[in-house]
Amino acid sequence: MKKALNLKLPYFSLIRTALSTLVLVCVALSGTQAQGKSTSVNKVIARVDNYYILRSELEEYLIQARSQAQGQPLPTACQALERLIVNKMLLAKAEIDSVIVEDKLIDSQVSSRMDYMAKRFGSEKNIVEAYGKSIEALKYELREPIKQEMVAEKMQSKITEAIKVTPNEVRKFFNSIPKDSLPYIPAEVEIGQIVRYAKVTKAQKEELRARLLDYKARVEKGEDFSSLASAYSEDLGSAQQGGDLGFAKRGDMVAEFEGAALKLKPNEISEPVESDFGLHLIQLLETRGAEYHARHILLRPDYNRMDMSEPKHVLDSLYNMIKTDTLKFEKVAKTWSEDKSTADAGGLLKDQQTGSSRLPLDASMDYGLYMMLDTMKVGTISAPMNYRTDDGKTAMRIIYYKSRVEPHTASLKEDFEKLTNIVLANKKTQAVDEWFKKAIADVFIKVDPEYQGCKMMGIDLEAN
Predict the structure, then answer these.
(1) What's the whole-model pTM score?
(2) CA 100 – CA 278 distance, rounded (Å)
(3) For residue 388, what is the domain's CATH number?
């Protein structure tokens, strides 16, 4: 039986996947530690300079490898430990070589991960109840592992940035695969979308403004701002701290919030301020050089009561013009789609790991989108339809079924991009391995006796 093509190589590509999952798992582990439970999963099994590897990291890496094996050989515990040690070496060498990641990028990634957790748990409130910690406390715990992940990736990119793949190398790799062992590629599709977000109704805005103005009046009459924030703010993370957002640098907050906060005098309270997050009531506490310290009460609109008339009107008009060939889908998407992650690519959805616009038509696809494509023909567009984004926003979108590649045995012509990615990943893995052999003398490595029989690129770990 032919095997499906595995684009996620067992070791090199799994480093980030395992780390990303561990970033979420670490919160649960820290919660266990906080409760005083000592478990073997938190045993240190290796040290690389000032970085430690827990047994839980090794086990999570192996779980990820099994989930993505797709018929390929699974890594042994020694091979998995080797990859994790390489990652810690990337961190250690990044310190030596002064490779850093800006705080703003780290904070952005922390927020993205928390949004992902909120989606899995249903809401921020559910996260707080599950872990017994505020959103800000959880963000604090996530920040260091996310920082390590991003620094390791930047160091890895520095090592592999000059690596290229030639068409001849791809052909050579393909020709090295026995003809009776060529992998089977499932059906793949290219899909575009034009998205328009629902708008907050005027009535909703007035309702939220009135509530915030009431809170402001209550503070001015003597009530405590932090108590009101704890009771009413829908930013659950800061609400746990009485609305306190701590010190922020210029550019850290959205422009509307920052602009309003910096116009205030210490202890002064703003009028309601609108941003993409909702409506804020802001109190400036103090300034310190280029930093400012503020707290707020946030009220969000009810997404089930959003105004769909604007997106429907716009998309209906665009749908008719695309259907009559007056406008091309790609041009319309670039100009009119409010989903910036796809608009620049003419609306095309892309695989987040490979960057390819060809997506597998299987269970990994959103179920609603999968069922919709089953009713469409290639080259057609859907009528505008209601849509809920990954981060919970209410929207409408038009779907464009651009192309479909039928299931087939891998070929050089049809799958050149996939084969190129595999060859490139292999070359990068080899480059990191060669780098490791040269860099190992610069760092201290020690492993638990249980793993001292393992080797790193042929080097006996016991010797270190």
Answers:
(1) 0.61
(2) 33
(3) 3.10.50.40
